Amino acid sequence: MHLTLSHLPSKQDIKLVYPRTPSSIDPNNPPWPAFRGYHTYSFAYATMGHRLPTILGKAIDDVVETLNQESEEDRVVDLVDCIKRMDELKEDLQAHAKLRPIIDDGEADVALWNKEIAKYFQGKDFMNAPWLFAEAYKYRRLRECFSVSKLWQQYDVFFRQKCDTFSRSGDAVFELSTRFVEPFKHKEGLSAQEKLDAERLMFLELTQICLWGNSTDLSLLINMTEEQIKSLQSTGGENLAATEKNILGNDMARLWEVVRDLKDTGGRIDFVLDNAGFELYCDCVYADFLIQSGLAKEVRFHGKRYPWFVSDVTKKDWNWLLNMMVYGHLFPKVTDEEVESLRQLGLRWKQYEKEGKWVYEQHPFWCTGYTYWDLHNEAPDLFLHLSRSDLVIFKGDLNHRKLTYDCAAPPSTDFEIAIGPMASAAGAPRICSLRTIKSDVVVGLGPNGDELADKLDKEEPGWKISGKYAVVLLSEGRPGEKVRFA
């Protein structure tokens, strides 16, 4: 039977209102639409469908290599079980399996993970859950493959890769060590203003080195040649001047003013770290200058508690870097002077640790699926701790995705709007995001940002994942206000 109805009102064009109202925002419904693995137009699709299975396959190869070097039966049998669990995870990933709870493996984040899965992701799978959560969940499941074992709980499937990439970064490493081996000193006879100008120029150049050090992200550079790594890590002055035009949202001038104003009191600056190896080395060169110039009295580095997103910094990576600089033989074809410059630098950094000027920390929240919009609610102790910092620098793409809820906000969206409570909550610290753009979310490009992004979409498809462009974005926060929790 066919109904002929002519008096019903016609269908309306319904315009959705974004950002969503705060009360309707949750991990499955970010402020703007989420990127999900089945969105064929997004980097999420390439990541969930191709990159993550490839990364997992390489991780399995790494464990097999370790297995083949083992001799004790109980260690061999235990590691074989780890490989079986990795194989199951790979099958789940490729079959787009539903997200199951995390097994209680004694990690401090189990309850946070399982609460989030139960509240927001029941019945969701690897492809239809928001990409940010699904990708983080995959790395948490990879951790579980080892954390439930008897003898391999601390194993890092990415450690060899991280060390190897740093060992192939020699040119850039010595370019910096030979320049910074001597502690920062002003030339004789400079006026106070000239000294400040010299510090400003040094600060701006080091900010760029710290920013572009993020180019070497192992999860993206799975098959890179040595030459390609060298060109990415070129730290010469002309190269930096040329790359500044690629910083699409650039608050560096304001960032300098914030740091300059700390000089009289000597502030605390925090780095929420991204990649191990060369990027961490650049972060440390930057932090070294902040201490020497008196712009900071104390620098806190926040890393991950276990292997995360291939190249993220763990305590093991931190210790490895400092000890390799002082004692290592990573770079056989270099001069004695170059080796000594790296050793001196490493000794100075170790001394900062002994004196408490540098502090390394690893809060469980950094390895959860939550975005930083939820940091205030889910990790109030960490929010309170960060609120006492004069500036929190978030490094890299993943931290930027978590700050901005990794959703399809217009590129003209103001950074402070995009990071929600991290800018607006009482006591929110000043935040700077140093990020080379390697995924779909792009905000903070200013009032003409939408037009600029459209132009780049037409002229350079893939500009959002190439790492060619970057942002240096600052949020003033609400420092000094009393932190309140509901």
TrEMBL record:
Keyword presence, Oxidoreductase: no
Annotated ranges, domain Damage-control phosphatase ARMT1-like metal-binding: 47-446
GO MF entries: fructose 6-phosphate aldolase activity; fructose-1-phosphatase activity; inorganic diphosphate phosphatase activity; metal ion binding
GO cellular component, as recorded: nucleus
GO biological process, alphabetically ordered: DNA damage response; intracellular phosphate ion homeostasis
Catalytic class of the enzyme: hydrolase
Catalytic activity: beta-D-fructose 6-phosphate = dihydroxyacetone + D-glyceraldehyde 3-phosphate; beta-D-fructose 1-phosphate + H2O = D-fructose + phosphate
Domain notes: Subfamily III proteins have a conserved RTxK motif about 40-50 residues from the C-terminus; the threonine may be replaced by serine or cysteine.
The protein's name: Sugar phosphate phosphatase
Biological source species: Laetiporus sulphureus 93-53
